[in-house]
Amino acid sequence: MKPAPALVATEHIVSTVCPLDCPDSCSLDVTVQDGRVTEIDGSALNPVTDGYICAKVRRFPERVYGADRLLYPAVRKGPKGFASFQRVSWDEALTRIARKLVDARDQWGGEAILPYSYGGSNGLLTQDTSDATLFRRLGSSRLARTVCAAPTSAAFQAMYGKMASVAYQDFADARLIVVWGANPSASGIHLVPHIREAQRRGARLIVVDPRTTPLAKQADIHLAVRPGTDLPVALAIHRYLFEEGRADDAFLAAHANGAEQLRAKAQPWTFERAAAEAGIPPDALRQAAELYATSSPAIVRCGWGQERNRNGGSSSLAVLALPAVAGKFGVRGGGYTMSNSAVWGITRDWIRASDPPTRIVNMNQLGQALLDFNEPPIKALFVYNSNAAVTSPNQKRVLAGLERDDLFTVVFDQVMTDTARYADVLLPATTFLETYDLARGYGPISLRLARPVIEPTGEARPNADVFGELIRRTGLEEEGDPQGELEEMLDVLDKLPDACAADLRDQGSATPVHGGRPIQFVDVHPLTHDGKIDLFPAALDTASPCGLYEYQPDPATAEYPLALISPASERTISSMLSELPRPEVKLLMHPDDAAARDVSDGDAVRIFNAMGEVRCNVQVGTWIRPGTVVLPKGLWRKHTANGYTATVFAPDTLTDLGGGACFNDARVQVAKTVRE
Ligand code: SF4
User: Fold this and answer.
1) Atom 3 in ligand 1: which residue has the minimum CA distance?
2) What values do phi and psi take at 469, rounded to 5?
3) For 120, 329, 480, 546, which has the most beta carbons within 10 A of its beta carbon?
4) Which residues are within 8 A (CB) of 105 and not within 5 positions of it... i.e. 6 or more apart?
């Protein structure tokens, strides 16, 4: 028998943390051999993520060393939209970018420059540090980062001041769990075992989702609502609570404003009316309301699925208001779980320039901005931490904008994304395994230092370094500006709230408030101006196009009757990692809808509406409700037969609150075809 190979002397395990756009912020053990990452696994340092990680990040070495990795700066040689580039030095690339930015500002004004970024890393160093300083000093257009979480954020801020959430670990104490608009089996996986544990202890589970998600399969009640109808469903539960004497009047009197206005808005929504709108059995809705009213502790896990439509802001408000009206706070395992990103009190006052009073461009309307803006037109686009070609609504207009010959585009990314193909200058970015960062969980209350575990691959450089260099090359440097990534990190550490800065310096992680397991209305309270819950925020009522809690009807037409949703999958983080091999992408469709169109499992279909078309094969199954079809979020253009993805159908209209994306307002038709 051959002896086992000796452990190579250079193999070692480095501890770091995952800063990607996921609630959980796992602590990681990364195995490095001869300077290369060979394995990524969870570590026990973060007790919530408990030593295991998702399959997505296990594959991250394939991204670091994959064929699509950007290794050198490059300039475009062929037409826009094709991966035809020529390597140049960093000096040449940065000189060209700095000159183009300054030229655009001098000729057209700073607003002709548009920085475009979102969540490619959620780390505190990777966004809103030297990048923000550069663009503020240039006086560029300001980007409203609204592609995700904008409506829930607006609702959550106004109603509770983003009061901290019930911890994952405390779900086990609940007698009832309501998972609304979330699929933790795909995003934020560490919640799932706690829900299972609660069920083992006898807790009941309600899931509100158009899909039969893994948790929906195990639920006592699954409300498979039609996309965009969460608002009437939640209002019907409020109506029941108020009308049947189940509202906690004493709690509301002491701790909330606006209960009477919410009650009035809920009044028209009987179970029958709401159920008819949502396409669910009224009895199931009644049972869900009764179960919620009579269970304690009861917790609502409010996700982001209910926000991705015209009613998204009011839907989120109505869901988040449930524990207040039903009096579910004050006990461990009772209340809500939303985002915990605000609990550290971090205000990003390390950005070394004030926000200029320049125009705001909503990122969900990138196509409009690139094609229609004239005063001034966008002449320079700088894309980083983002892949707009496949993530921004109205994909055809976005691509048409990116094709403009007179638009100078920089893409600073880790791999050759669909957006990178439109770049005039490409810059290679480090991954989180090659750089420092500060990772803040928005599920578990955690804040940890991420450290490089390997040297940068190729000539990749961190964001802080590159934007700092551009500040210098555009002549915008000021005394005291950080010089490079490490100085930037120390500057950020200096400006963090005292409560977390010292811990991060001493031990690489901050101590979570209340041990990371606060009881709502015992340990934490609303951070609103008067310390009360605002069930009917006046400012949001004014901002909403038809007033708070007013339902905007389904946009379906006889021509385009099917609601198309594009939820997160277990394969990608938004579009990140979509460069990696995956099984064939198929449209998911209910058997009734398939039969009505003479479509069988495996058939080639065209999905279409007036905005565009996607060609792919179909998978028929009952895990999606009738009248709704599914394409995964985050596909790249290579994944469909004709190079378009679900965003081609997403209108660039905005949600009622927060300027969010209306992905789930896409209405389409499907027809059988022959695959090309
Ligand atoms: S993506 Fe989420 S679950 Fe996966 S390793 Fe990162 S934090 Fe953990």
Assistant:
1) 54
2) -65, -40
3) 120
4) 112, 113, 138, 139, 140
DSSP category for residue 662: -
Calculate how far, in angstroms, residue 501's C-alpha sits from the geometric centre of ligand 1: 24
Per-residue H/E/C for 573-632: ECCECCCCCCCCCEEEECHHHHHHCCCCCCCEEEEEECCEEEEEEEEECCCECCCEEECC
Q: Is residue 654 very low, low, confident or very high in pLDDT (cuts 50, 70, 90)? A: very high
Place 9 in a pLDDT band, splitting at 50, 70 and 90.
low
Q: Could you give the C-alpha distances from 454 to 5, 199, 419, 621, in angstroms and in order?
A: 24, 42, 27, 44
Q: What is the tens place of the pLDDT at every residue in 443-458?
A: 999 999 999 999 999 9
Please report the pLDDT score of residue 675 as a whole number: 54
Instruction: Decide: 576 and 20 in contact? Cβ < 8 Å.
Output: yes
Mean pLDDT of the chain: 96
C-alpha 23 to ligand 1 mean position (Å): 8
The residue to mutate among 40, 43, 54, having the most atoms of ligand 1 within 8 angstroms of its beta carbon, is: 54
**Residue range 116-129, pLDDT digits in tens:** 999 888 899 999 99
* Burial call 616-627: b when 16+ CB within 10 Å, e when fewer: bbbbbeebbbbb
- Give dist(CA 290, CA 288) in Å, integer: 6
Ligand 1 nearest-atom number relative to CA 56: 4
Q: Which residue minimizes the CA distance to atom 1 of ligand 1?
A: 22
Q: For residue 388, report the distance from its CA to the centre of ligand 1, in Å.
A: 22
Q: How many CB atoms lie within 10 A of CB 246?
A: 18
Rounded to the nearest whole angstrom, what is the distance from the C-alpha of residue 55 to the centroid of ligand 1? Answer: 9
Question: How many A from CA of 26 to the centre of ligand 1?
Answer: 5
Q: What pLDDT, in 10s, does the model give residues 497-525?
A: 888 888 998 889 998 878 899 999 999 99
